Amino acid sequence: MSGHVITGHSALCLIIGDPVAHSLSPAMHNAAYTALNLPFVMAAARVDPNALSQAIQGMRALQIKGLAVTMPHKVTIRDFIDTIDQTAETIGAINTVVNKNGSLVGYNTDWLGILRPLERATLLEGKKVAILGAGGAAQAAIFASHYAKASVTIFNRTIGTAEALAQRFRCSARSLRDAKALRDFDIIINTTSLGMSDTKEQSPIPRESLCPHHTVFETIYAPSLTTLLKDAQVVGAKIIRGSEMFLEQGVAQFELHTGVKAPREVMENIISSALST
Fold first, then answer.
1. 22 and 69: one domain?
2. Do 134 and 197 belong to one domain?
3. CATH number of the domain that residue 254 is part of
4. Domain tally for the chain?
5. Catalytic-role residue among 74, 100, 180, 230
6. Residue 277 confidence class, pLDDT cut points 50, 70, 90
7. Is there a single domain that holds both residue 236 and residue 252?
8. Is residue 187 part of a domain?
9. Which contacts of 19-27 are long-range, i.e. CB under 8 A and separated by 24 or more positions?
10. How, if at all, do strands 83-84 and 128-132 pair?
């Protein structure tokens, strides 16, 4: 394996978000560039929501090749780029931007990050899916569930937000206060931020809402086992860690940025190593 040599010809990619210092994307992508000896480098940039338009102007001026986009910019970035892929347009959120000769094109790979691990874990067609939250990741989860012909109900603390999203995607909405109703579902996908950073001791739902027949999917990848997943394990439910979503969306994102097939095992090893420390 050749070393990762950065030169004046190296293409720059960034992950932007606020916060962003915790992200494993630079480590994962740079390891993949090194494995394939590609002239790319990824760094992280914290971008305040009020400075997003300037950041995109900077992308154009500096001819940055690609962006990985994380919270809170996945929806608002749509206003500042040139073209949106049809899938990303339908979802309403963008997590990947590619600079194609000066034209900025937005994509969404989060839905693949949700679909692929779910397909490995269970049959989706006809299943009842409960999605916790109503932000950009929830929109990707709804799209993935509908793509696999599952039915969807959005559970959110602010019921009005859930109802607006449900109307757009033609699905159902309920309040998170109705957590007991989750017992009637097959799959629970958490897209809220409850369980990470300062809320790592918390779960978006009480343990008594979980049942052994559930498949519980967490979109948070650090910590590797959130309180929600620990509770799911206690009751005997099947769990899918957020690291699986992170890997799958990253593989698809890498291929959009570079045009090269991603070295999946290398990327998976970086995530596993980082989360085991």
1. yes
2. yes
3. 3.40.50.10860
4. 2
5. 74
6. low
7. no
8. yes
9. 19/46, 20/44, 20/45, 20/46, 20/47, 20/70, 21/46, 22/197, 22/222, 23/68, 23/70, 24/221, 24/222, 24/246, 24/270, 24/271, 24/274, 25/68, 25/70, 25/250, 27/270, 27/274
10. unpaired
Sheet holding 238-240, edge to edge: 172-175, 151-156, 128-132, 187-190, 215-218, 238-240
Q: Which amino acid is at 57?
A: Q
- pLDDT tens by residue, 170-220: 999 999 999 999 999 999 999 999 888 888 899 999 999 999 999 999 999
In this prediction the pTM is 0.94
Q: Which of 246, 199, 251, 197 is nearest to 221 (CA)?
A: 246
Q: In terms of residue numbers, what domain contains 63?
A: 11-108+246-275
Q: Quick check: is 74 catalytic?
A: yes
pLDDT at residue 136 in the model: 87
| CATH number of the domain where residue 230 is located | 3.40.50.720
- 123 and 209 in a common domain: yes
Same domain for 93 and 116, yes or no, is: no
Q: What is the pLDDT of residues 83-123, one digit of tens each?
A: 999 999 999 999 999 999 999 999 999 999 999 999 999 99
